[in-house]
Specification:
The complex is a heterodimer of chains A (about 300) and B (about 650). Chain A is mostly helical. Chain A contains eleven helices and one strand, in the order H-H-E-H-H-H-H-H-H-H-H-H. Chain A is about 70% helix and about 0% strand. In chain A, helix 2 runs antiparallel to helix 9. Among the domains of chain B are: about 240 residues, no CATH class; about 40 residues, no CATH class. Chain B is about 70% helix and about 5% strand. In chain B, the strands form two sheets. In chain B, strands 1-2 form a two-stranded antiparallel sheet. The chains are: A mainly alpha (about 300), B mainly alpha (about 650). The interface between A and B is large, with 83 and 81 residues.
Chain lengths: ~300, ~650
């Protein structure tokens, strides 16, 4: 529960910080931190135009998409708190729950019969399929290092900082940042700043959504960032710290994460679409390297 | 008493051929209900008895009686078989309606007769333990399903696939006969129970491999699957539902049955099954993605799911090898539960695909689109089946997959180097299968049901209630297993205690996990409902308009510009080209062509293992062709052959070599 409240708080400033950092990096003043949320509130109050081609699938997709993200955040542990919803293999549930949201989101986009949205949906399906192994290898590695299979326990033991977890931790944080970028279709996989047809994945899938439904999707995207930020924070916050310190560090990490995304998007080019699968598969191979490293480290410990 | 029942069933089933056309269906349904009642009662009784002790009875003619045994494993499979066969029977009435005028009375009677006999023979396979009766039942199963596939035998392609099917089933049958004979010659008894004696003092791997190949052809493990993508689409949909839902599971049943008696090489066998299954899973789903034929796509998905089941079984066997009871429970438990789950959602998918075929007379997904507006109920059932087969929460596919995942992750940190590597590869395979399945079913569902129609079809109506009813039952069970997994998983894990002599582990981690999953599923549903309510409240006061799909400024939007199945699958085709070999027919536009003429673009998926068993037959054909030169057609030559033969015999006799 703490995790959800904190994630919602983070989501309030997250998209704003990214936009602001990007504006400053490009020499502009930029909109206020809360501007994205003002936009969302405007959308919430608007009516909507729904394509006549669509069916009920189009209407239920945004709601389920947001719901899966909310429940996924509920499972996440927060440092120092007992997550009462954690269980053995909860990260599998976490990943598959997000996949359910994506499934609905993809068929929602396909429901419009638009070729643009078809392209976006197709790429979303491909990239989330390609990134899935990286996530599972990473958690396999963490599980093997700590000997546990629930996120709560994995992170608890993981933060008992010895050298092994520092080494694996660096790779884990790197991978989580990259996975978050792919899952949210940001640079280098896709650039959401470009408009409509030029954006290749996420934004092109929401061309036909309007009003309340579009607002739900924007909220979902912001929450998704906060969710990955919480995962990263889980790798980093030491258990031994006092509660106030943990909370401060949590927000500092989220802020840093948002700023880092802003900077990366400012100074990094979008990859060619054709090269994206290779790039995403690289993440899996980095995760594999972490796994092999972990095998070596553990064997060393036994000897 | 039991003999009377057996003879009654057999006589009653033959009467299907004689009853008049009007009551034929109801009579067949009655016979099938009778069979279901007769076998389900003892099966449920086995499950209800505290120690799950097997029930045994003999039946048949006085001097020639058969022993039927129902233990927990058989009981589990019997219940699944009865459920799916009955659902198929209910569905068949509406599906076969158009054929009543096209087919002769006898053909339809024969079809129902074979359908009942497929059901009967599967039950017999599950209950017979002696080698010879088991093999006879196995053969009956192959023959009756062959007759069912042949229903539309006037189509050349159907005839061809049916014959291929029959031949491949007999290759499997031959392997099983050999395996039983090996066991029989060394122990003197030809039965499953004699395997225990055989395995005690022989190497286990060899004979197991023979059994695995024999049963694997039926189950459709990857190099031996070539009959499956042909036979499933060729058969009528209720038959494909039963074949894919339960008949291929008889192979799984056989493998688990043999594994019960394995005593050495256990770990190696486990790794072997795991690797074969991982390959089947990944390749199966990739092949599924590139298909255009809806039922062929589903058929390849059966291979994928057999792969998932096999991964569970392989993991469990590895657990037996390293004496880790928790791995055994998670692996076999997940695998067996997936048998149940797959039979539910796969038959549901085949039934709803059948409804589409019935209304639109095509299985080519590129000709369909936008059906959801005409057939909303069928679309909903297909959607439920799709979400379930992708293993997504809160439906049943997820439950069995997370059991296997939990086992894999547990084994990862519990074993040595080899085990870690093998299990990590299995985890990658399972994660890939999950992602690819989502890719495949977003394609299948959205190309068939969503968007606008790609071809003009006459206005169609939703199929009638008789066809929707069995689908509703299956869908309800899918949801029930997803929401209340503990109720279903615990009985399945109890089966294992009767199969393997192991110290039964504490199940509290599993029940804890499953309780949390059902709690979270309910939370998910609650959140969805709350959001819907908020959406309803907010949108009540707003203006909701209908408009055309936003074409990004382009005004001449056409239904043909939509994403098709081929374009959706195109990326996978490109990425996995060495594995898929899709054959493309397209002539690119040349530079000097200022006004290009009309063009055609076709892709034809090619199965890399498609040659499969053909490799052997091709080789044989090559040799036989060379031998055929002897057959010249001149009578003089044949007389010469006879003369040479006699001469050789004479010489050999003279040299005292004979």
């Amino acid at each position: 529960m703490t995790g959800l409240v904190l994630a919602i708080l983070t989501a309030v400033f997250f998209p704003g910080v990214i936009t602001r950092v990007k504006s400053i990096a490009s020499g502009r003043k930029g909109p206020g931190i809360l501007q994205p949320w003002r936009n969302v509130f405007v959308l919430l109050r608007k009516g909507s135009v729904i394509s006549a081609t669509t069916s009920f699938v189009f209407r239920i997709a945004p709601v389920i998409y947001l719901a899966t993200i909310i429940v996924a955040i509920l499972i996440l542990p927060f440092p120092g708190r007992q997550s009462w919803l954690g269980f053995e293999g909860d990260f599998v549930f976490f990943a598959y729950l997000l996949a359910l949201g994506k499934f609905l989101f993809i068929i929602g986009a396909m429901d419009t019969g638009s070729s643009f949205e078809g392209m976006g949906a197709n790429r979303e399906a491909l990239y989330s399929m390609l990134v899935e192994p990286a996530f599972f290898i990473l958690f396999g590695t963490l599980g093997m290092l700590t000997g546990h299979t629930s996120m709560q326990e994995i992170f608890e033991y993981f933060r008992m900082s010895d050298y092994n977890s520092v080494i694996i931790g660096i790779i884990a944080v790197y991978l989580l940042v990259q996975i978050a970028m792919v899952e949210n279709s940001r640079v280098p996989v896709d650039d959401p700043k470009t408009h409509l047809e030029l954006t290749m994945i996420h934004e092109v899938m929401v061309l036909d959504h309007s009003g309340f439904d579009l607002a739900l999707i924007h909220i979902g995207t912001a929450l998704k960032f906060a969710m990955y930020g919480t995962l990263i924070a889980n790798c980093l916050i030491p258990v031994s710290w006092p509660v106030a310190g943990q909370f401060t560090l949590y927000f500092a990490i989220q802020l840093l994460f948002a700023a880092a995304i802003g900077f990366m998007e400012s100074f990094r080019a979008r990859k060619k679409l054709m090269k994206n699968p290779q790039y995403i598969l690289t993440l899996s191979s980095i995760a594999l390297m972490a796994f092999v490293l972990c095998l070596l480290l553990i064997n060393q410990m036994i000897r | 008493m039991d003999s009377i029942f057996l003879i009654t069933i057999i006589v009653a089933s033959f009467l299907i051929l004689l009853v008049p056309g009007r009551i034929r269906y109801f009579y067949a349904l009655l016979v099938s209900l009778f069979i279901v009642a007769l076998t389900s009662i003892p099966a449920i009784a086995v499950f209800c008895s505290p120690s799950l002790s097997p029930v045994s009875f003999s039946a048949g003619l006085p001097q020639y009686s058969l022993t039927f045994t129902i233990d927990a494993l058989s009981a589990f499979f019997i219940l699944i078989t009865n459920l799916v066969s009955l659902a198929g029977m209910l569905y068949s009435r509406g599906y076969l309606q158009p054929y009543v005028t096209q087919k002769s009375r006898f053909e339809l009677s024969l079809h129902y007769f074979c359908f009942v006999w497929l059901h009967l023979s599967m039950l017999a396979v599950l209950m017979l333990r002696d080698g010879l009766p088991f093999l006879v039942a196995w053969e009956l199963m192959a023959v009756s399903s062959f007759m069912l596939v042949l229903f539309e035998g006037e189509k050349r392609i159907t005839l061809k696939t049916a014959v291929t099917y029959l031949i491949q089933m007999h290759v499997g049958f031959f392997l099983l006969v050999t395996a039983f004979l090996i066991c029989g010659t060394s122990t003197g008894i030809m039965s499953f129970d004699a395997l225990k004696i055989y395995f005690a003092d022989h190497r286990n791997f060899g004979l197991f491999l023979l059994f695995f190949a024999g049963f694997g052809i039926k189950a459709g493990f990857m190099p031996m699957h070539t009959w499956l993508p042909g036979a499933h689409p060729a058969a009528p949909s209720h038959v494909s539902g039963v074949m894919s839902g339960v008949m291929i599971k008889m192979g799984i049943y056989g493998i688990v049955r043999v594994l019960m008696y394995i005593q050495s090489d256990v770990y190696a066998i486990g790794v072997f099954i795991l690797v074969i299954s991982a390959i089947s899973g990944v390749m199966g789903v990739m092949m599924a993605i590139v298909q255009h034929d809806l039922k062929k796509l589903l058929a390849y998905h059966s291979i994928e799911n057999i792969g998932i089941i096999g991964m569970g079984i392989g993991l469990g066997t590895m657990g037996l090898g390293v004496h880790n009871p928790m791995l055994v429970v998670l692996g076999f438990g997940g695998g067996l539960l997936h048998v149940l789950n797959h039979s539910l959602f796969k038959s549901l998918l085949f039934f709803s695909a059948g409804s589409v075929y019935k209304r639109f007379h095509t299985r080519n997904i590129e000709d369909l689109g936008g059906i959801i507006h005409q057939m909303p109920k069928t679309a909903t059932f297909f959607l439920i089946g799709s979400v379930a087969i992708c293993g997504l929460p809160p439906l049943n596919g997820f439950i069995s997959e997370i059991l296997i995942y939990a086992g894999l992750f547990r084994g990862l940190s519990a074993g040595g180097f080899n085990q870690s590597i093998a299990l990590l590869l299995a985890i990658i395979a399972l994660a890939l299968i999950g992602g690819l399945a989502i890719f495949c079913f977003t394609k299948a569902f959205s190309v068939v049901f969503l968007g606008s129609p790609r071809k003009i079809h006459p206005e169609v109506k939703e199929v009638d209630g008789g066809m929707l009813f069995p689908q509703a039952i299956l869908a309800l069970l899918i949801i029930a297993i997803g929401l209340f997994p503990v109720v279903f998983v615990i009985p399945v894990t109890h089966i294992l205690s009767t199969l393997f002599p192991l110290s039964y582990p504490d199940l509290s981690p599993i029940t804890g996990m499953l309780t949390k999953i059902s709690l979270l599923s309910f939370i998910l549903i609650a959140v969805v409902l709350v959001l819907f309510y908020v959406r309803y409240l907010v949108q009540k006061k707003r203006i909701i308009q209908q408009g055309p799909t936003w074409g990004c400024g382009y005004t001449a939007v056409d239904a043909r510009q939509q994403y098709t199945g081929s374009s959706y699958a195109g990326v996978i085709n490109e990425l996995a080209d060495p594995l898929l070999h899709s054959h493309t027919d397209y002539q690119p536009i040349a530079e000097e062509e200022v006004f290009p003429s009309s063009r055609k673009f076709e892709t034809h998926p090619v199965d890399v293992f498609g040659k499969g068993l053909n490799v052997i037959t091709d080789f044989l054909m090559l040799i036989l062709k060379k031998l055929a030169r002897l057959q010249t057609g001149y009578i003089q030559h044949y007389i010469l052959y006879a003369f040479v033969y006699i001469l050789i015999i004479f010489v050999l006799l003279y040299l005292k070599l004979l």
